[in-house]
Structure formats: structure tokens, C-alpha cells
Amino acid sequence: MASGTPKTLVSTSLFRAAIGPSSPEPLSLLPPIPSEVPCSNVIPRTRFLVDAFLHAGDHSISYFLSHFHSDHYTGLTPNWSKGIIFCSYITSRLLVEVLKVPESFVVSLSLGEVVFIDGCDVTLVDANHCPGSVQFLFKVPVHDSKFERYVYTGDFRLCDSMKAEPFLKEFVGCEAIFLDTTYCNPKFVFPSQEDSIDYIVSVIEKFGGDRGASKGKVLFLVATYVIGKERILVEVARRCSRKVHVDSRKMLILRILGYGMSGLFTEDASESSIHVVGWNTLGNTWPYFRPDFIKMREIMLERGYDKVVGFVPTGWTYEVKRNKFMVKTKESFEIHLVPYSEHSNYCELQEFVKFLKPRSIVPTVSADVDSLDSKHLQSMQKHFAGLVDETSSKRDVLMNSRRFSSELDEMIEAGSPQEIRATTSIDASGNSCTTPVFDDLSIRVEKSSQSPLVNREAKEEALQELGVYLPAWVSRDQMLELINASGNDIIEAVSSFYERETDFFRQVSTSTSLSDVSASLITSSAVSLSVSTPANNNSARTMNLFSSIQNKVTKTNHVKKSSNPGKKPKTVSVNSKKKRKIGSTPETLNSGSGSRQSTITSFFTKKLPVSPHGCGVGNRDSPKH
DNA sequence: GCGATCAGAT
DNA sequence: CACATCTGATCGC
């Protein structure tokens, strides 16, 4: 199929082709989209579902997958038959070869190519997340030859090339952006990927010399998960001029990703002293990073080295110090926590929104609509400023939403003298997504005739802003101090606050037993910041940042002591975890017999024919219609 | 027994 | 809670 000319695809016809002569009903006659499908996964005015395969059903026949991470593709099985899955080429290969999704249901689209699907123009642009990750641009017709434009970022990390992307530019001022809000909080300020890679390379080179053969004394370990953060490996291999050792699992994935012939990787451990290890090999990251020096020693002895230097590239860290990388050391082991992220950080999210100037924002992360009841929502909205809780996903959604909308006040734009005012509208829970227009979690940004912000109100604004991100017990005076000390830089202020908290937590946690931690934390947090904690605040409220840690600790202890070995005492209301009935399609087309969730593990346990030069897999042409 | 889904661990 | 993944238990037929 020639490239260049825009393709025209109609999902229904593809679907028919895929499932045979018994054609489905016209789109308009499909059943309504069930209300339990989160709005953050449905493109308004369409039947398009994005990254929502657990919600697949008769109501939709066009599905989109932004990237190949399990939390986005769950629901896809070898028996998939509910509709066409649109994704990037790399993702399509992974779907077919790893998950064994029937190839006839997978359609890969090229980046930057406008495709006509079910009456809508759809374009893929790179998401700079993991290999194969894309953002979807939907141009949905409404009436009078007008369109609504939607950007679905999937998981993404902003980069310069993204802002230069012409297709994305055409979506400036779009109706809504479905945004990856994973790190939508100023406390997450991590450096650019380049800086992080620079750091890793510099550490490796600091130890210099012993490259190549088995004589190497220093073993370097890089923790990654199955797919993602390959750029670190590629860059390290390239810039350190040596191969990176991976096991056969990782190598198979890398082949599918197109690195098979790069010569950057080897399965022969003796060829390299830089080895890739599994995500949890070097330690656990929760609730704070605890290195596993025992395992490191095992690996060191096993592989015949004298010293081990590990890298854990993670975006999830309480380490908020900028330009500083945490290093854990013991004997001949050291682990570098490198704040490497494949999600956009707070500043980048701001920048992206500023760039796109959307009319509304729909958070796609932590938007657990099922568990958001209207009462809770409304009360949170009402007491919003005081209810910020870093650890609550429900609140995060609101907070981030709110955050963005107020952010828009400043960001949206420059030239325009008119103020843009944001309103967060939260509907009653019964709101159905059948007409997938915005409700629940989306924020409408509307024009208003109010006067612009007056300068002298700036301080107050900043204060409120800051209040959103700090625990409720921080006093107004303290916030003022933080603001002043940071030169009115909100992010700096939040950052320095959490820096102190984190430092303190670390001190305490290394010098006391677990059961003492929570008590110490409460006391010392108050002390360290000279906070006059209101007596009527309960402790959970008081210890905001670490409340979850605290809960975890106490809960764990409690469980151990109490007679409740099997089950974790959940306080979540039963009905909030209602079972969602996925519409089971009567058409059990092509379903052979061996139907079972194909996992990556099962993929790897099979012996795949490996081509002589390790490049045979995944080299086919894109399965165009 | 089997597949789909969830809870928990890693 | 959680950057993602996998195992085993449980649910439902």
C-alpha cells in the first residue's frame, strides 16, 4: 500500500472483512456505550474507545491502543474479536507476536498520516513514551461541516520535536485534550531524559577502563521493565562504545522494537559489563527506595565481579532535589536513583497545555470514575483548597483538574486581553457516557467578561496555588515564607517544602523501627516546620505527605499482629467495587479453543525460531488493509 | 474444567 | 496511592 496519499479506512468494512460475511449493524444502531465506561477513554460523539479493552463490547467496533504497556492493553487476548484495534506499527507487532491478538483485528497506522475511520479523521503522532507509543488526534464531524478536535495523549513525555509536529499544531485550540496527568504535581520535577542519560554515562565512564571481556571488575546494572526506557540502554551503549547485555526475553522484545541488528545489545554476558536487570532486582521503590544489596551480592558473585554499580531509572521518587541524584551505598555496592521519566513532568504538562490551548482537559490518569461518588466529589470541590491529599487518586484528579484550569488563566494566552475563566463542573454520578460529552472529570474552559487579575492579587493567587499542593496543616505564614524564599516560584516553594520533608523522613526511617515511624513523623514534621498543628486535626490529616506510608506501615503491622492473615482489611465500600459486566458478544467468531490470556511470560516460555542474525522477527510489512 | 478478572506481591 | 508486570486466588459459567 502506497504511502503518501491519505488512506481511507472505514472501520466497519474492515470489521466485516475480518469477521466474515455476517455484517454487523450500522454504527448508528449499535447499543449505547455503557455508563461504566470511563469518559476518559471515550472520544466524544464517537464509538471510539482508547486504551479501554476491559470495556470492550457490542457498543464499539473501533478501538485504539496508545502503547504496549499492560495497564493500557489489559483485556486483549488471543480471542479478541470485538473490533479493530488501531495502533502504531510497533505496537501492532507486539500485539500480534506477544499477546497473540488475531492479526486480522489489528491495523497499524503510520505516524503523521490522516486516516478516515468511521467518519472521523484520525492521525497518530509520536508520544515519546515507550517504543511504539503514540498520541491520537481525532477530528470528529459535528454539523454544518464543522469539526471538534480531540487530542488523546496516551502516556507521553513532551519533547521539542513534539511542539514542532505539524499535525499537532493543527489541534491548537482543540475541544479537549485527554491528558497523561501521571506527574501533574509540582513536587515531581525531574530533569530531561538527556540529563539523566548524561549522568548515567558519566558514572559509568568514571569507572572507566575495563570494558570488553570478562576481566571487568565493575559490573553495571540497569533496571528496566519489559518495554520502556530503551533509550537509556541505546544511548549508554552508543556513548560508552560498548554493548549492553540483556537476557533472551529482553532481546526478543528489542528485536521486535527494531534493535535486533543494531549491534548495541548482546545476550552474551561476557561481552559486556553493563547488564540489564528486571525492574525490582535492585530494590523496591515503595514506599521509599530500599536497595536489595543481598541480591546485588548474589549477582556480583554469580557473574564474577568485584563491585556493582546499579541504576534505577524512575520517575517515581520522593527525591525532589533538583540536579541531584540519590545514591545508596554499601560496601562495594552502589545504587543510583536516576529520575528518568517517560511521562511529562509538571512543567512540561503546563507547557503542552499552553501550546495546545485546549478548551478543556480530561485527565486520563487516576480517573477512577467508578469509585467517585458525587457526594465525595462535591464535598471535595467545596473544600477543595483544604482537602489536598497527595496520596489520594480521587483528590488528585480533582486537584489536577482544578490546577490546570486555574493554570489556564495564566497560560492561555498572551495576546488575548480577555480572561479565560475556568469552571470545574462535576455532575451527579449517574451521568451516563452514552453521549460522551464532558461530564464528571472534564473541565470546561470558558470565556468570561470578568476583569483581568490585578497585580496586587498575585500574592494571594500564589498563596492559594501553593495551598493546593501542600498539606493542609501548613500555615498561611509558612506558605508566605516559602513563597518569599523561593522568589515567587511556586514550584520551587513546593519543591523545597517536600525536600525538607523527605530529608526528615529519611532520617527518621533509618533510625527508628517501623512502628515508631509514624509517630515520629507526625511529631517531627510539625517540629521541623514549626507548624502549629491545629489540635482538632486528626493525625491522618496532619501527616499529609506520608499518610499513606504511615497507613501502610501501621496496617502492615496490624495485619501481622491481628488474626487476619488471608485478607487485607479493606475499608472500601463494597458497592464501590461493583462488578462491571462486559457485554459479551454472541459472535464468538474465530475463537478457536486454546483461548487464554497470553502474557509476556507465556510468550517467552515458548521457543521461538530465532533467525540467524537475530532480526527475523517483526520485519514484515505493516498489515495494511 | 476453563476463561476472565481481581488482589497481592514483586 | 504508584512509573509496570506477573502469579495465584476467586468468580462465574
From TrEMBL:
Residues 263-367 form the DNA repair metallo-beta-lactamase domain. The keyword Metal-binding does not apply. GO terms for molecular function: 5'-3' DNA exonuclease activity; damaged DNA binding. It is found in: Nucleus. Signal peptide: none annotated. Pfam families: DRMBL. The keyword Membrane does not apply. InterPro entries: DRMBL, RibonucZ/Hydroxyglut_hydro. Residues 555-625 are annotated as: Disordered. Belongs to the DNA repair metallo-beta-lactamase (DRMBL) family. This is DNA repair metallo-beta-lactamase domain-containing protein. It comes from Trapa natans.
